[in-house]
Amino acid sequence: MTEAKHTPGPWVPVEMMIGSRSFWVAISAEGRLPETEANARLIAAAPDMAAEAAFLLERLSDLENGWDDDKDAYRDFCGHVSPSAARLRAILGEASK
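-> structure tokens emitted (97 positions)
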């Protein structure tokens, strides 16, 4: 995997106002840095990363519960985890640009 270009942290949530609309952003505690675009990419990828991480955790819990020599369950596990891991790698790679 490529070296991360985003700010490693800490980050802080900040409420912003534009006109009468309020929204939240995450900014580096260090202030504006050259990594601002990379930070934005990472934040934008967060929902996809969270979804893939949750999916992988569900599959890993299957592994923790054991197979009891169930080869069909093992094949099913591998068939789900490998594609999800590939998607998560792609998301992380896109977020690291």
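The mean pLDDT is 76.
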